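pinging the channel bc i need a second pair of eyes. not urgent but kinda urgent?? the chain im working w is below, pasted from the shared doc
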Amino acid sequence: MSVDTAFIEDLRQFASLEPAWNTLVRRSATGTCHSTFEWLYTWWKHFGSGRRLFLVTACENGTLAGIAPFFVDARIPGAECLHFLGQGLSDYADLVVPCGRQDVAEALLHALLQRQAEWKAVDLEEVPADSPYQMQLERLAKTVDADACWVPTVRCPYLPIEGTWDAFFRSRGGGFRHNIQNKLNRCRRDGVPLRYVDRMSVTNTFIDEIVDLSARRQKTDGHRSPFLNHPDQEFLRGVLPLMSDRGMLRISEVRVGNSLGGFALAFCWQRTMYDWNTQYDPRYAAYSLGRIALAHLAKSAFEEKYAEFDFMRGEEGYKFQWTSLARSNVALRSAASCGDRGGT
């Protein structure tokens, strides 16, 4: 069966892929919440200025069979650089190809090679280290730089969900359990009125609360947050309601009275809950409300029979209190890759 390829180079063509995009992601070997149409289309709408969409599709008998989701950063003439869509905010990136279909990956590569003169460097971040498409991506990079190589970027801790929450919680070390329980006891002792809210949708008013909380945290200890950066915040105001409309968003809040004291925000995709952002109000730092919100979120993943809780990229110590398991991400970079590595 022949595979036909085409380049998608404007927003209208990109939008036309929506009906079939996520169906393909569900069948793909490395698809995640950050491979979805909602995430990448919204990212392009907010970050496409000065960049050229370079998205390649593969079709069989008119049915979408593969996607190479790239863009070319053309803001520096003579230093055009190939990146994955979503770079900078996505925790994972790869070709979107069904399991076992190396022929589709090869067709996408062949199409890209026909136009490889249109970029001078390659910088592809956050590719899973076990991606079945590393060979194709490496061949793509080496057409412009024979010295292009893979480099490790970050580990991504994850927790397989097996059994019940109570059994898992008992299996953790005493320090882990006591830390959470002691904080809850301290709240009760100090008369701090905690209230849990499970949220599957967001409004601008709620995002304003997150922004205010993040600003207080940054002022107190310098903690960085995408909710404070322009245009990251505008992207999040666009993508979070869209993902919630698709049933792909989950937020566990801990409120002190009516005030947002802490939250854990996750994306839900294919029986995996992806913990993307956890924050707390520094006014309540003594009560570890971010940790309590994360525990409440993880408990819901057990109760709702998810298969995995993914802590996503980053090797913060608190993640390894939950699990000893981690996957690795890698980046493919040519020696001449842009100083600006995509993203925001």
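so The two ends are 40 Å apart (CA to CA). and The longest strand covers residues 149-160. — does that match what u expected or am i reading it wrong
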